[in-house]
Amino acid sequence: MDSYLSWVFFKWAETIPHYNHSLQPYWTMIHILTARKQFIDAQSLLQRIAFKDFLSSALVLNALISSNNDPVLNSQILSWLVVLYAKGKKIREAIQVFEQMESNGIVPHVHACSSLLNELVKARLTDSTWKMYKRMLQIGVVPNIFVYNVMIHACCNTRDVEKAEQLLNEMELKGISPDRFSYNTLISILCRKGMHYEAWVVQERMEREGIQLDIVTYNSLIYGYCRERRMREASCLFKEIKGAIPNHVTYTTLIDGYCRVNDLTEALRLRTEMEAKGLHLGVVTYNSILRKLCEERKLRDANILLNKMGFSPSYSSYSWLIDGYCNQDNTESVLELPTEMVRRNISVDISVYRALIRRLCKREKINCAQKIFSLMQAEGIMGDAVVYTSLAYAYLKSGKPIATSEFFGEMSKRKLMITPKIYESFSASFADSNDTLRLFWDHAVERGVVTRKAIELMRQLDIK
């Protein structure tokens, strides 16, 4: 009854004007509710305080833990907190809570561990994932199928077949049977490394254990064949799919494969089949076909396909088309692209103009890039830092430093700065023109669109 009255009083106190509970009453109430197995109410309260400043700090958590030192309840509540932070993409805070549990001798629930490891894997923090996994084992966490699957997924990110197989063997020694996800992830790693026989062995093992292959399994196997241009095997496997329905990934993988072996006819046939089945043609599907059409100089067909997309194409889409037109010395067709997109009710925003200007500047078609820039301004669309930096560099390379200074001056006026991402992109794209690049960055510093210190720091990072 006391615990029930505490909950009633806690809720009543919240109705008092200008009164707010501090962290301590919240924490005490969460403990009371958890002890009464009122988990939904307890988790709801925890959510309300989880993202308050300093809750995950060592000082605050230690004080809260010592005020209610029941190890079972603390483990339950702090495990929920780890899950909340992990799912909220607050990895640093989740790790801080884990560390406080570790230092206080509290073993987290395995679900909290799998949630934290999963977010580390998603963030591609592979080294941190393995370090955290080892720390969890050291404090007595017993991995389950979900933890093992997350760790096998970590192996997928680094294509580490040996570690993935070690984890599978470890699972079996502990009496944990690998599931479809475990096997699919291993097959994916093997196929990405071109180890088709080994992938086939895993596939056979799945079938022996009564685990039906799903479309994810088939997609990995098909990708492996397409990657190595073994389209006959890929096609045979596609026709043999059973118990699963081919999806847009299946078709896109095959389309890309056929484009890479110069079989545009089959790629286009599969695209038609996709459309007939109502499958979504994404930018990857379109780009595979666009690239091949442009390589074969079928620019009219490429343009028709570009306008059929119904959404803004990617930078790569424009790159191939612009390269095709430039190779034919047909920049007039490039200038017509935005107008044609508007005519087909496709949104023409800054991303479209940015892609066109970037590629034209890369191809040193500065006059055409300037015309696209003027078209963009006439539409009332303001250029961003990438647009201005691209034009500034193109003018400098063409021997017009005054125009470069003018673009930097406009950037400075609009407070557009050169970011590390822009620096990295330009350094990679124009790596063969170091002298021009150095002069370019010096101009940028002089005009105040980047600091000398920032350039030096980015150069150091670039060297590393």
From TrEMBL:
<feature type="repeat" description="PPR">
    <location>
        <begin position="74"/>
        <end position="108"/>
    </location>
</feature>
<feature type="repeat" description="PPR">
    <location>
        <begin position="349"/>
        <end position="383"/>
    </location>
</feature>
<feature type="repeat" description="PPR">
    <location>
        <begin position="144"/>
        <end position="178"/>
    </location>
</feature>
<feature type="repeat" description="PPR">
    <location>
        <begin position="247"/>
        <end position="281"/>
    </location>
</feature>
<dbReference type="Pfam" id="PF01535">
    <property type="entry name" value="PPR"/>
</dbReference>
<dbReference type="Pfam" id="PF12854">
    <property type="entry name" value="PPR_1"/>
</dbReference>
<dbReference type="InterPro" id="IPR002885">
    <property type="entry name" value="PPR_rpt"/>
</dbReference>
<feature type="repeat" description="PPR">
    <location>
        <begin position="179"/>
        <end position="213"/>
    </location>
</feature>
<keyword id="KW-0677">Repeat</keyword>
<dbReference type="Pfam" id="PF13041">
    <property type="entry name" value="PPR_2"/>
</dbReference>
<feature type="repeat" description="PPR">
    <location>
        <begin position="109"/>
        <end position="143"/>
    </location>
</feature>
<feature type="repeat" description="PPR">
    <location>
        <begin position="384"/>
        <end position="418"/>
    </location>
</feature>
<comment type="similarity">
    <text>Belongs to the PPR family. P subfamily.</text>
</comment>
<protein>
    <recommendedName>
        <fullName>Pentatricopeptide repeat-containing protein</fullName>
    </recommendedName>
</protein>
<feature type="repeat" description="PPR">
    <location>
        <begin position="214"/>
        <end position="244"/>
    </location>
</feature>
<feature type="repeat" description="PPR">
    <location>
        <begin position="314"/>
        <end position="348"/>
    </location>
</feature>
<dbReference type="InterPro" id="IPR011990">
    <property type="entry name" value="TPR-like_helical_dom_sf"/>
</dbReference>
